Structure of ATP-sensitive inward rectifier potassium channel 12:
Amino acid sequence: MKWRWVLLIFSFAYVIGWIVFAGFWYALAWDHGDIGYKQRDKEWEPCVANVENFKGAFLFSVETQTTIGYGFRSVTEACWMGGFLVVLQSVFSCLVDVVMTGCIFVKLARPKKRAATITFSENATIAKRGGKRCLMFRVGNVRQSHMYDVKIRAHLVESRINTGKTCEQLETHKLILEDNMFLIWPMVIVHEIDENSPLYKLSELMLREKTFDKFEIIVFLEGILEQTGLMMQARTSYLPSEILWGHAFTEFATPDEGHKRLTIDYRKFNSTYKVESTTDLSAKERSTSAQQIDDNYTFPPETYSDLRKSNSFENSSSTQEWNEHTFQEQESGYVTSVDEI
């Protein structure tokens, strides 16, 4: 709801309350015979002093509900209904104050604008990290106030295209990320591309020539604000054209000499650099190629000869000692021969 409607409802809630109770006070004065009592009988004791018309009843209603209390108009002991209306209007005034104050506080404390202070990197990257191929993107909180219980989720939404060149259906796949994190400084969020990842078949050629099925990676970040305890959510998405193959994010956090403070240079938040060791093959193609190399590898002939000699006991120390002992006792008829293996 926009602010103009909130302020309009806020004003009408009080004005309508004053008018309604002014009607009650005027009805009470009319029922008790207080209308124009000063002209009839100066000794008359009214239910509400100095309330002889609707204008006086309205002013008394405003004074009662806002507790102004000028003292010119007041309830007397002439009727019990006057005291009951005072209590009723006081309770109504408290309820209106609580409800309207709560509505304005919620309006001010809504985390709608807070989500704009959560920054995502303009691009996602695919490169090796820790020896494994990963999808990476960066997220940061530009405010000094922190969030806790921060959770981040990512889903890959792809469209399956049939032979008729029409969109057949949309499929959603979850990307495995680190669920909980403490977002006190910008972090790089990592998704490992393994055989269970929906990006397992994605290669640089597919990404560049758009031969891979059309997809979009949607990222959700949720957290609780420390000031209000309210939940906020920020969202972003990455198209194939926004994914950089073979790039990694530049370090932009610098500790001081005493390692007591960390300086964050947000000018480098979206900066990346080229990782030369990244191949253009998909993770699946790399895994298949490595398996084929292991299965088809043959040793050269000289390697077989070395293995044969190293595994035979012709050159072993025990065999050589036995041969020397045997050769020394040939006269006694002990002859030993070791066939080559």
Q: What stands out?
A: The two ends are 90 Å apart (CA to CA). Residues 3-32 form the longest helix (30 residues). The helical segments are 3-32, 37-40, 54-65, 80-109, 204-209, 283-296, 301-311, 317-328. The chain has a mean pLDDT of 78.
